[in-house]
Each structure stands twice: as C-alpha cells, then as structure tokens.
Amino acid sequence: MDEETLKSALVFFQGDRPSYEEFHKGPKLDYLRESDLTYSEFFRGFLLPNYPCILSPEFTESWRSRQHWVKGDGKPDYEHLLEHLGDFIVPVANCDVKEYNANPKHNIPFRDYLSYWREHRENGYSSLQGCLYMKDWHMHRVFPDHGVYNTPLFFQSDWLNEYWDTMELDDYRFVYMGPKGSWTPFHADVFRSYSWSANICGRKKWLLFPPGQEEHLKDCSGNLVYDAQSLILQDRDRYPKYSQCCQPIEVVQEVGEIIFVPSSWHHQVYNLEDTISINHNWLNGCNIDTMWQFLQGELTAVQEEIGEWKNCMEDWHQHCQLLLKSCTGINYCEFYRFLKIIAKNRIAVLEATSGDSAALHSTLPAELSALGPCHSVFDLHRTEDVLTAMLANEDFSRLDPDLLGPHPENLLHEIKEMTHSVLS
Predict the structure, then answer these.
(1) Which domain CATH number covers 192?
(2) For 155-161, what is the mean pLDDT?
(3) 10 Å Cβ neighbour count for 413?
(4) How far apart are CA 400 and CA 406, in angstroms?
(5) Which end of the chain, C or N, has fewer beta carbons within 10 A?
(6) Helix and strand tally (H, E) in the chain?
(7) Rg, C-alpha atoms of the chain
(8) What does the angle CA 33 – CA 46 – CA 259 come to, to the nearest 5 degrees?
(9) Does any domain span residue 14?
(10) Overall average pLDDT of the 119-136 stretch
(11) pLDDT computed for residue 403 by the predictor
(12) Contact 387/339 with Cβ under 8 angstroms?
C-alpha cells in the first residue's frame, strides 16, 4: 500500500459508504488482468467500496493444480488425484437433501468420492446416492506446503487465516470438487467475510445480490430462502417483500478465473460442468467492522432466544457468549484475542521497519512485509476503531477482564502510541 492510498483509506471510513445502486440492475462485473491494477488501485477500487470483480486466468495459469489436477481435455485427472490425495478423509454434501437450510455432510475417503464421481458421470450424472459435492475440504491445513496454488497479491491482507494459523487450530481455505449439477444454496459467507474462488477446471454460474437485498428474500418469519430461484418466492403471503428485490448479478465463471465476492454479498452457486475450485474466506481492515456488527447481531439473536431465562439463570450473559461461540464459531472474548494478534503483529512489523526489533521480522507472516508498512498503519487504525467500539459495548464490558490480557484499554493505548509515532 502506498502513502496516498493510506491517506484516502483513513478518510474513507470517516464518511458515508458507497451505495450499491449501480448493481441493482445486474451489470457485468469488472474484468481484471494482471497488468490492469496495482495492489493500491485494487484496494481503492474494490476492497474499500466492497465491489465484486473477476480476475482473468492469467492469475492462476502458473498454479500446479491447473497443470496437474486437470487432463488435456480440461476434465479432472482422477488418476492423479487418486494417487496423491486418495487416502485422505474429505467432507461431502448431498445437494439433493435440505437440512436446516443447508446440505447435510458426511466424511468419506477421497478415493471413495472419486469412485462415486466417475460412476455418476458415466451414468449421465445420475446416482442412487444423489448429487454429492465435496466441499469445504481444508487441504491447506493437511498440506501447508502443498505448492499447488498461491494466494494472489490482491487477497493477501487476510486477517482471518493469519489469526487461525497463529492459533494452529483451523483455517478458512478450502478445496471444492463436484460434478455438473452440484450447487451451493443461497447464503453469505462466514462472519460476513470476503471470499475468493478460483476455478481449476470447469465452469460455475454465480447469482450475486448486493448487501441489503437479502431482506427481500426472507419469509414472513424472517427466515432466508433456501433457493433464490425457487418458485416459492412468488407466494406473496409467505415472501411479502420479494417483489422489491433487485435482479441478481449473474456471472459465468470460466476455467482459471477468480471471482472476488465482497462482504455481505449473498450468493448462490452452480457447477455447470465437472468443477474443481479453490476458495478462501478472508477479512481485513476494510471489513472488520462488518464482522463486529455481525457478531453483535448474532449475540442479540441468542439473547432473544433464551431471554425468558435471563432473571433465573446464573451467569446468563456468560451462557449467551457460549451459545454465540457454538453458533458462529467465535464469541466476544475470542474476537478480542483475534484483534490483539492482528494488532501485535502490525506493531512488530512497524518496530522492525524502524530498526527497533529486526529479529522479530522473520517470525511474522511474509505477507505483512509484501504489503508494506503503510498497510500495517492502516490495519492498526482500523483495529483501533473497532476496539474503541467494543469498549463502549455493554455486553463486552461484562466479560471477565482476566480473560482479556492485556486489558483492552492497554492494547488501545499501545496501538495509539504506535500510530502516532509513525504518522508524526
């Protein structure tokens, strides 16, 4: 990030956010080639305003996955995949079954899934087992040094995976493989994060809805529709707001292309052919406030759900935090730890850049060096903004301070000292 972008980014968050009116008529997305934009230009043009786009196959043509996972005819190379990955256990969803507004999953050996896939294809894409879709496989966690793809520079400011890599517990990097006809129901991504998805082979059709439009796709009880193309939406008694919904942006993603899906853009995805894709969920300083807003909304929903027990349940607020963790994967305490790790890493980068502690530099994610010190300054400012909002939050103030070392006020002071010393 250059200094001009840093200045414009800090000003950006002091004003009103751009609207999505231009997307309400379903325009085509911007199509980017490697030579089109610098990182700073992408940051200003897409990350800050939260606008989607498509990246050309130039970004993926050197990936080993595109060279080795696919045969000359563009179809998946089952033999290569079986030889190198066949023994691993993978999650498989049944696209023909609806369970709590999603597809039920089970874990099977990858070799069994490949056997199913080939048989399904040979039978004209029909099987008694239904349409099975291997999705959300944490291949990177199994093979951290896999070398089959590289995260494009535009997406390397990735707080979500930086934190989970530090904790060594989880990640939000996935491999998807599925036959023609497999699909993912209508949803927004975890924590309302960004996502990027690269097609290794095959083609996908995406339906994208700008933030806010999902309100028109809820039934009279407030439940989100399962299939955004279902005829049930025509039932005005059940979906009274559907007539106000804009047309989705329809995108056909070709082989090698990467789609960038911004925060809170609900979407539905179809595999038009046998398809392999690599997907990351990620977030950073541009949308960390969106994650904080999402968590507040989820906690409110939990509190309303068990509100009748508030006056008779000991540690009711603590139970709400436990339920929040169960429902979303994170609660307020862990969200603070998340911000703390991000802030501490940026402080270390700036100290190393100034020569105060160069030894720390080698222990930090390489992406932080590639993005430059201005990006670390921006990240600290955004962490400061969200941490300030958290300190003013009544539910956050109820947390046990002994679980929050260093105390949030001390961390906030440390952040302010660092940003002041860099900018002064």
Answers:
(1) 2.60.120.650
(2) 97
(3) 12
(4) 12
(5) C
(6) 14, 13
(7) 22
(8) 55
(9) no
(10) 96
(11) 86
(12) yes
